[in-house]
Structures are given as C-alpha cells and as structure tokens.
Request: fold
Amino acid sequence: MAPTYDVIVLGLGGMGSAAAHHLAARGARVLGLEKFGPVHNRGSSHGGSRITRQSYFEDPAYVPLLLRSYELYERLERDTGREVATLCGGVMVGRPDSRTVGGSLASARQWDLPHEVLDAKEIRRRFPTLTPHGDEVALYEARAGLLRPENTVAAHLQLATRGGADLHFEEPVTRWEELPGGAGVRVHTHENAYTAGQLVICPGAWAPQLLTDLGVPFTIERHIMYWFAPDGGTAPYVPERHPIYIWEDAAGVQIYGFPAIDGPDGGAKVAFFRKGTVCTPETIDRTVYDHEVRAMADQLGPRVPTLPGRLLKAATCMYSNTPDEHFVITRHPAHPESTTVACGFSGHGFKFVPVVGEIVADLALTGTTAHPIDLFDPRRPAAAVA
Ligand SMILES: Cc1cc2nc3c(=O)[nH]c(=O)nc-3n(C[C@H](O)[C@H](O)[C@H](O)COP(=O)(O)OP(=O)(O)OC[C@H]3O[C@@H](n4cnc5c(N)ncnc54)[C@H](O)[C@@H]3O)c2cc1C
Reply:
C-alpha cells in the first residue's frame, strides 16, 4: 500500500516548522507531529528575541547560509505579514584578538561583508549606554539585529498549513521503523501509526533520546535569559538607537544583549552565551536563583552600567550542543534512504531557521542539497569527541 504521506516531520519547533513549510510549498504531502502545542516555551525557540548577524566568528563557512537565511526571513515577513526581523545593527565587542572581534572580522573580510571597526571612544560616542575599556574595540555590522522566535515559528506553521500540511500538536512520536523493501517509514504515536516515504527529525533538546544511533554525544544545557529595567527608562535602549551586542571579556566569557523591544515597561534582555549547566528536557530546573541574577548583573555592570539595576523577569531555555558546536544536518547515516536529521544547533541556530528548512526539504525530497553543509556531517571527527 502506498504511504499516506510523502514526508513526516517530527518536531514543529524552530527547524521543524520551517521544514514543514518548505516541504509543503514544494507540493509534498506533509504530516507534522509535535509533542507540545504550537509555539510553546518548553524547547529552544522562545523568549522573544534571538540575535542575527552575518559576520560569523563561529566559522566563515556559515556565511553563505546566513545570506540565504536573510533572504528567506524577508520573504517570510512578506508572505505572512508578521514581524520577524528587526535589523537594528550590532556590535561584537572585545579585545582585537578576542574570538568575538577577531573571528567576526576575519569572516567579514573573507566574504566582503559591509562592516566598520570602532575603537572604544567611537563605541561610547555612538552608543552611550555601552562603556568599553580603552583596549576594547567593536566590529559594527549595520545588518545585524534581532529575530522574533515565536513569530517565526508561528509564520512557518501558518505557511505550512496554507500549503496543505497536516499539523498535529500534543502528539509525541514514540518510535518509528523503516518499512521493508525501501518503502519508507512507519511512525508511531500513542494514538496512531502513520506511514510516509520520508521522515525528517528536528528534535531540538530531545536529540539524545531520539537519535541514539547517530554517534554524536549531544549535551543539553540550561540557559537563562534576563530582562532588566534600565535606570532612567528604556528611551536610550529602543531599537532605533540601540544595537544588539555580543561582548567578550578578557577571560573569554561572552554576554549578549538586545534593545528594549517590549515597550517602556518590558526592559531589555541579556544573557550569557555558552555558560549553561547540563540538564535534560525532563529535569531542567526552571527556577532562576538570586546568585545567578547577581552573576549576570556583575558581568553587565561595568559594560552597560544603566541596565542591571532591577530584574523584571527571567526564563530558562535549552541549548543542544555538539562537541565542536557545529550543527548536524544530514541524511541519517544509519537510515540514509528514509531519514533526514537537523539537530545540535548548539545555541546559535535560530538565525538559520529558514535556510535549514530549505536544506532539509532538499535532502528529504532529492537526497542532496546545493547548500554547503559539509561542516554539519555527523561523521566529522570533531562531532564524535565528547
Ligand atoms: C537562551 C537561548 C538563546 C539563544 N540565542 C540565540 C541567538 O541569539 N541567535 C541564534 O541564532 N540562536 C540562538 N539560540 C539557539 C536557537 O534558538 C536554537 O538553535 C533553535 O531554536 C533550535 O531549534 P530546534 O528546532 O532545533 O529546537 P526546538 O525549537 O526546541 O524544536 C524541537 C521540537 O521538537 C519537539 N519534539 C521533541 N521530541 C518530540 C517527539 N518525540 N515527538 C514530537 N515532537 C517532539 C519539541 O517539542 C520541539 O517543539 C538560542 C537558544 C537559547 C536556548
């Protein structure tokens, strides 16, 4: 019997919602299965804002994907009328030889991306809320800014539905198996079993339990987002005047922050980058403790002195790290005929959401993609080293 669907997408968070849209837009019969409700706050795609930028200190190999992602984010806004991106500009601050500054500059030069290098005095002049040390500089990128994760997921779900996808929420996948003779896959939930020619797995923080045979030792981390009320009000922090920032100190600790996008009473959001604690989606502690708020305020105080006075709220979220912090996007090595995987986004995946949807649709429907994804092969040596 022919399978009911062309493709089943497991997980309708950031990546899965984009995959469902791109697959449906190409005419595939798509079923999306999601453990929770639409646009939930139990995974990795919530908290109101995510940084986007093109100068990429993690590796210049990401830049072509970023350029495509920017195009697709613009198209997403046009096609849905939802606000998903605010390009308020961004500064990557630190010593000239820091990874944040040096790596961003190297990728900007390699790809000829528009950018400026600002010394400490010029940073203070342009952005008076920021008070760098005399030996710190910044790479300024006018096309950096912020994305709205909840709106992005909602927009992709909207387009997937418009394209004819069946999306089932509160229906976790419990297991799946390949059908004999290369006939596709059967996917089980508590209530039902569905068949499809292809399976796409976008599991976020559930990767360790759903992808045990991938050979990548994922680490799931609890991270905290903090919203502080600036002393003297949010006026100097509005996106028309204030950039996003990533700021690396002399010890290599990075923080990042956003303009005030939630009105005069919403504060401005900040967080540590890559300073989480190991957890699982089942055991994550959602309480944020006083000592954690103090650590954030202490790091922020010398750099953005009017910000850390009064905490308005804090929330937790999960990173899904690979050992080398590069993504995993691939045909599943153990099931190359039937299964595509996108996971291990290691705390920097959101800016790639639409292009990952496009890549996953390529892989599921044609087995290959024209996008450069060699870096994301789970068989790379650095992905296997815990
Ligand atoms: C605090 C924080 C800050 C971040 N900041 C940035 C940033 O500034 N810039 C940036 O680019 N990136 C950032 N990221 C990273 C980015 O948000 C993530 O890489 C991205 O959201 C991951 O999307 P995902 O689809 O992999 O995971 P998710 O959006 O969590 O989606 C996975 C989905 O799979 C579902 N699922 C799991 N198991 C099952 C099952 N058995 N059956 C059905 N469904 C299932 C889950 O319910 C979930 O909806 C940040 C992440 C965090 C946590």
About this structure: The first strand starts at residue 5 and ends at 10. The CA atoms of residues 240 and 269 lie 16 Å apart. DSSP finds nine helices and 20 strands in the chain.
